[in-house]
Amino acid sequence: MNKRQAVPYGLLLIVFLLWIYLKPQDESIAPVEHHPSYIAYQLENTRFDEFGDLTLQIYAAKATNYTDKGITLFEDLKVVFYIVDKEENSTTIWQASSDKGILTDNNNKLLLSNNVWVKNLSLDQLVQTMNTEKLTILLAEKELSTDLLVKWQGPQMRQQGIGMWASLVSEELIVKKQVKAIYLNENK
């Protein structure tokens, strides 16, 4: 190859290298990172009804809120329900607790998981304690449900079943299948 033939190839190579160097870079769209709106430690939240009566208290060691996703994540969660019976002039207090919780659906649906316990703190109901691994709570309706194994105890009884729906307001409990019960003939 002589100089006359090498010059155009050299110029072509230089132009190609300049084009690569000066070419505008395509901006790749980075995925949106979801950062929490807030993180709260030792959270305490109290709710009242339209008459000013206490209806609900929420306690958590940590709460992380993601406004863009519409969820709040809880760690070491306790929810205390106050069920007021105006006719009887009495209040029944229930506490639901778990290691983890997720609040969704405009702050009405609470999904509890890991070591879930529901306890009657007033000791005035047939069911005193319930436990399962996952539980869904509709806060406004005060309804509990699960499709997993649930165990509950009360005075002189121990029962278990798979799948459960309960209303704290109407004091109803429906177990879907495989119910096993032990009744104790003890005086307490």
What is the count of helical runs?
1
Order of SSEs: HEEEEEEEEE
Rg measurement, Å: 30 Å
Distance between the termini: 109 Å
SS class: mainly beta
Layout of SSEs?
Layout: H1 3-22, E1 38-48, E2 54-66, E3 71-85, E4 90-104, E5 109-120, E6 129-138, E7 143-154, E8 157-167, E9 172-183
Antiparallel strand pairs: 1-2, 2-3, 3-4, 4-5, 5-6, 6-7, 7-8, 8-9
Question: Can you put this structure into words, describing what you see?
Answer:
The protein is built from one helix and nine strands, in the order H-E-E-E-E-E-E-E-E-E. The protein has 188 residues and is mainly beta. The chain has one helix spanning 3-22; strands spanning 38-48, 54-66, 71-85, 90-104, 109-120, 129-138, 143-154, 157-167, 172-183.
Index terms:
mainly beta; about 190 residues; single chain; nine-stranded antiparallel sheet; 1 helix
Brief overview:
With 188 residues, this protein is mainly beta. Helix content is 11%, strand content 59%. It has one helix at 3-22; strands at residues 38-48, 54-66, 71-85, 90-104, 109-120, 129-138, 143-154, 157-167, 172-183.
